[in-house]
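It is worth pausing here to work through a concrete case rather than discussing structure prediction in the abstract. The textbook approach is simple: state the sequence, then state the predicted structure, then interpret. We follow exactly that order.
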Amino acid sequence: MAALNPGEFSQNIQLGIEVVATLAFALSGILEGARKRLDAVGVCVVAFLAAFGGGTLRDLLLDVRPFFWVKYIELLWAVFVLCIVAMLFMRQRHFKFTEKAILWPDTLGLGLFTAAGVFASIMAGMPSLVAVFMGVITGVFGGVLRDIVCNEIPQAFKDHRPYAICAFFGGWAYIGLRELGNPAYVNMLGCVLVTVGLRAFAVWRDVRLPEWRS
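Step two, the predicted structure:
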């Protein structure tokens, strides 16, 4: 079997990152929907919005067709199965739906989707600043939709701990590594590590941005 060239390998890595990110954000949506005591349909809707919202907006802005979840329809089945399995498991185990439980899949999804968004934008020929913002949009927008549907001020805005800023710095980590001539999969890994690391540190040390004061 012929070996993959670096470009094909990076695209496979990006697909793998997008799959894990989708499942991580879907899980955060399941937990938030359950915490709000929605019914099974409501939980699934919130999970799907969280999982596909950021990537869909990215594809719209980049004019990419079909959307990533249409091109890889297996993702729809994977999220649907995850919803069913997670709801059955949490009912049997009497899982406690706390905000802290949602933080970690949300943090992982943020880092992974940011990396996938920057990569997709670079592949579409976007300049560095646009690619970074596309990474932020991809990483943040699914969680924003999740929280709005659950009648919450989006977590990205309300808890004052850096969130979108972590994705922003992670995106620039990708650009910096790319300028050094690294292959795309190394750039994506660096982006994930920086984004997740900064967000985890902010949560662990309770680092907060100053709130608006009148």
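Step three, interpretation. The chain has a mean pLDDT of 90. The radius of gyration is 17 Å.
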